[in-house]
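To: structure desk
From: M.T.
Subject: fold request, one chain
Message: Could you run this one when you get a chance? Sequence is below, nothing fancy, just the single chain.
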Amino acid sequence: MTYQADEQNGGRSARAEDAVGRAGPAPADTLRVSVLASMIQGALKQAFPRRLWVVGEAAELERNRHRKHWFFRLCESDPDGGRSYSLGAVLWAADAQRLFGRGGALEGVIEPRDGIEIRALCEVDFYPPHGDLRLIVRDIDAAYTLGRIALERQRLIERLGREGILERQKKLALAAVPLRLGLITSEKSAAYSDFVKELLASGLAFRLRCFDARMQGEETVRTVLRGLEVLARDGAEAIALVRGGGSAVDLAWFDREEIARAIAGCPVPVLCGIGHEIDTSVSDLAAHASFKTPTAVAAFLVERGQEALRLLADAAERLADAAQAPRLEAEALAAAAEELLRATAAAVRAGEAGMQERARALRRLAPHALAEALGAAS
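Reply: Done. Structure tokens follow.
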């Protein structure tokens, strides 16, 4: 009865325990998982005894690369067949530090992000405890990767050009004197200080609102897009998007398609000042106007205001001259009339004097003429 009660209550039966106890060894042609995993590991080492170069597109990297070891995937898509291929990859901490750490060969050269196509020197590895086939990345070909980045950037520029995206901002009218300004940059940066210092030195009545955005890293796209939205809604007459110089990786965030499209779609003229003299980003191309440095953007706005003041001063002077012209003309006419009056009066006086002299002469000559006339008659 006890046995039946235990079985009905779901407990392990004595019969089941006896069956387990009587279980014998596996057949001779059966492998345990650990043995098979070790065989696979050994076969892979024989098939791939040396490191080899592999080209693929990185995925799941951005969420993993801040860890000690970088775990991601190398992928390839077949646009014709519609298939996709993916292999797990790992970059151990020591190799990540050697390549991307301070002073590493790729620091400031390649931006480790999803979607980047890399040529990596790999070891094909099998990890028996998890049954994972993976690529252990030992090196990355910078020249190949930079070439792919440049190619992708050029293709993006061409695509945006065909869509008319790069011309949208150019069609916006910039205010003659934009005094309500928006600024997108990091408030703790030298770019912020340089920009504000240039405006303050001008003495013009600029009103500035700054949106504190990230200028590099994963938050760049989100914060820059948010800044454009907020400042345009706030009534800015122009928005300056500025950051100082940096490495190719730092500045590459402003080659992102999302930022370029957001700039193009902004209803307010956007003035870009990103990087150094030799840097030109896709964002620069999409903006209303671009300048080499943050200071140059501010100087342009200051010069625009000062030129407007010069034009106003010139217009005011010409207006004053025009207002005085009737009075000056009247005064000139009055002087001319007075001179004419004086000349006329002098002529009249000279005429009167002559007539009087002639009358006196006639009075002197009249008696002689009368006497001569009477003598002739007799």
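Reply (cont.): The longest strand covers residues 117-127. Let me know if you need anything else for the meeting.
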